[in-house]
Write a structure and sequence with these properties.
The chain has 486 residues and is mainly beta. It contains 3 helices and 42 strands.
Length: 486
C-alpha cells in the first residue's frame, strides 16, 4: 500500500515525502477522516458579523453573543433569532478589519472594538450592554489574566497593555487596587494576549514577552522578552491547551510557556500560504481558531481582501496539515453548543429523515465543545453537517528507477462506497503532470481502471460531498508493468 502522505505543498514534486494536495479531511495516525461542513443554527444577522462569543455557565447554559459594525446581539435560544442588546446611548462604530472581541470576567461579558467604549453585559441581570464604568481606555482587544481584565491594542497607545484593579473591572486608575499599565517602546503593536493560569504570553508585531504575576506590592506583573518574533495581526493568533498558535512574518509557529516558539509550517505550508495571501489587507483579516472536536487549529484567510474564502488546518496531535475549502466565512471560533429542546427540534426539523446532521451530534446537548462560524448568509452554525468533498493525492512515485511503468488499475484503501480516482503522469522528473480521466471505483472489486504510462505517477482519490465514510489510508497499485529504459 502507498499511504497518503502528509500535506506538504512546499516540497518539490520529486523524491518528496509529502503530498501536494490533501483537502477537506482530518489527519489521523493511520490516514484521514472526513471534515464536516458548516451547518447553520441561527437565523441571519442583519449585517456582516464582526465577532461572536459563547458564554458557558457552570450548569452548561450557553448564551451566544454576536456583533456587527453598529450593534450587539444575543441569540434567542427558542427560535434562534437575534435579539438586539446594544447599548441604549447610541449605535457603535466598529469596522470589519478590527472586529469585536469578547471576554468573561466574573458575572460580566465584556466586548470591545477599538472605536467605542468597552461594553459590559451582566449575565442574568442585563437586558442590554452598557458602557463599562470606571473610564477604561478604548482598546481593540480584551482578555482576562488572573484576577484582572486586560486591555490591549489601545486606540491611543497600541504599544501599551493596561489592566484593571484586582477583581474589579471598573477600576482603571493606575496603582489603585493593583490597576496599572506597561508600555513597550520596542516590538511594535500588541497583537495578542494569551492567559496561562495567572500569567500570560504577550505577542507584539515583532516580539514575544512573558507576562508574569509577581504577587509583590507595586509589581503586579513583570514582563520579560522571550524572543524577537511576533504575530502579523490580531486575529491570526489563538490559544488552546496552554499553547499559543500564531502566524508570524516567517511562518506558522506554536509557543509553549517556558519553551519559546517552534515552527510548524516550515518546509510544509509556509511558502504556499504566503503565495496565496499576497497583501497586507489580506494578512489583517487572517483568522485563527481552535477546533476542539477535531483537535485542529484552523487559519481562515482571504484571497480577495474582503471575505474569508480559504482555510488551512493544523492537527496538533499528529503534527499534520490539511487544505480546507469551507466556503465563504465571516468568523471562526471554538464554542459550545446551545442545546435543543424537543419542541425546538421539531420546529427546526419537522422531517427527521431529511436532516443532514446526525442525531449523535453534540449540537443537540447544551454546553458541549464545538467549532463554529458564520456562513456567507450571516448565519451562525457548527461544523457538524454533511461530509465535505475530500480530495487526496499521493506523492509522485517512480515504480522503477530510470524506467517507465504502466498502471492499469489501483484500489483506494477506504470504507467509502462511492470514490473516484485518476492518475497524473510525468514523462520526466521536471515535466508537467498530465492527468488522465477520473473514473468511479468498481462497487464489486473496489478497483479504479486507469491504464496509463509514465515515468512518475501521482494517484488522486476524490470522495464526493455528502458521502458516508469514516477513513481513508492510501492506495494499492494492484496492476503495474515496468516498461523499457527511459
Amino acid at each position: 500500500m502507498t499511504p497518503f502522505a502528509a500535506y506538504a505543498p512546499d516540497q518539490p514534486g520529486f523524491y518528496s515525502a509529502g503530498s501536494p494536495l490533501i483537502r477537506n479531511v482530518i489527519p489521523t495516525q493511520s490516514g484521514y477522516r472526513p471534515f464536516p461542513a458548516l451547518a447553520a443554527l441561527s437565523s441571519a444577522l442583519p449585517a456582516q458579523p464582526q465577532g461572536f462569543f459563547f458564554n458557558v455557565e457552570v450548569d452548561n447554559t450557553v448564551t451566544i453573543f454576536a456583533a456587527t459594525a453598529d450593534k450587539l446581539y444575543k441569540l434567542d435560544a427558542t427560535d434562534y433569532s437575534w435579539d438586539d442588546v446594544s447599548r441604549s446611548s447610541g449605535a457603535y462604530t466598529g469596522n470589519s478589519t478590527q472586529g469585536w472581541t469578547f471576554a468573561r470576567f466574573g458575572d460580566q461579558v465584556l466586548a470591545t472594538n477599538g472605536n467605542d467604549d468597552v461594553q459590559s453585559f451582566i449575565v442574568g441581570t442585563s437586558t442590554k450592554f452598557a458602557d463599562l464604568a470606571g473610564s477604561p481606555p478604548k482598546a481593540r482587544r480584551v482578555a482576562v489574566v488572573g484576577d484582572h481584565v486586560v486591555l490591549y491594542g489601545l486606540t491611543d497607545n497600541p504599544n501599551r497593555i493596561q489592566w484593571s484593579g484586582t477583581n474589579d473591572a471598573t477600576e482603571w486608575t493606575p496603582l489603585k487596587n493593583n490597576a496599572d499599565y506597561q508600555d513597550f517602546p520596542e516590538g511594535g503593536e500588541i497583537m495578542f494576549v494569551a492567559a496561562v493560569e495567572r500569567n500570560a504570553i504577550v505577542l507584539q508585531r515583532f516580539k514575544a514577552r512573558a507576562m508574569t504575576a509577581t504577587g509583590e506590592s507595586g509589581f503586579v506583573f513583570t514582563f520579560a522578552e522571550i524572543e524577537s518574533r511576533g504575530a502579523v495581526s490580531h486575529r491570526a493568533c489563538t490559544a488552546h491547551g496552554g499553547r499559543v498558535f500564531f502566524l508570524s512574518e516567517d511562518g506558522f509557529f506554536v509557543m509553549t510557556p517556558g519553551a519559546g516558539s517552534q515552527p510548524i509550517g516550515a518546509e510544509r505550508v509556509d511558502a504556499t500560504f504566503k503565495a496565496a495571501v499576497t497583501s497586507v489587507e489580506n494578512l489583517e483579516i487572517v483568522t485563527a481558531a481552535a477546533d476542539p472536536i477535531n483537535k485542529m487549529i484552523v487559519w481562515a484567510y482571504s484571497t480577495n481582501g474582503t471575505t474569508l474564502d480559504r482555510a488551512i488546518g493544523y492537527a496538533w496531535q499528529v503534527d499534520r496539515w490539511v487544505d480546507l475549502e469551507l466556503g465563504t466565512l465571516f468568523g471562526l471560533s471554538a464554542g459550545a453548543t446551545s442545546g435543543y429542546t424537543l419542541e425546538a427540534l421539531a420546529v427546526e426539523y419537522p422531517n427527521l429523515d431529511a436532516m443532514t446532521i446526525s442525531l449523535d451530534s453534540p449540537r443537540w446537548l447544551g454546553g458541549r465543545p464545538a467549532f463554529a462560524g458564520f456562513d456567507a448568509s450571516y448565519r451562525l452554525g457548527f461544523f457538524d453537517g454533511a461530509n465535505l468533498e475530500a480530495t487526496l493525492d499521493t506523492a509522485d512515485m517512480s515504480f522503477s528507477e530510470g524506467r517507465k511503468a504502466r498502471i492499469r488499475a489501483f484500489r483506494p484503501i477506504t470504507d467509502a462506497t462511492a470514490i473516484y480516482g485518476q492518475i497524473g503522469n510525468k514523462s520526466r522528473w521536471n515535466g508537467p503532470t498530465a492527468w488522465g480521466l477520473e473514473r468511479l471505483a468498481s462497487s464489486q472489486t473496489g478497483r479504479v481502471i486507469v491504464n496509463q504510462s509514465g515515468f512518475t505517477h501521482r494517484i488522486r482519490c476524490r470522495i464526493p460531498s455528502g458521502a458516508d465514510w469514516t477513513g481513508i489510508a492510501g492506495v494499492e497499485a494492484i496492476e503495474s508493468t515496468v516498461q523499457g529504459l527511459k
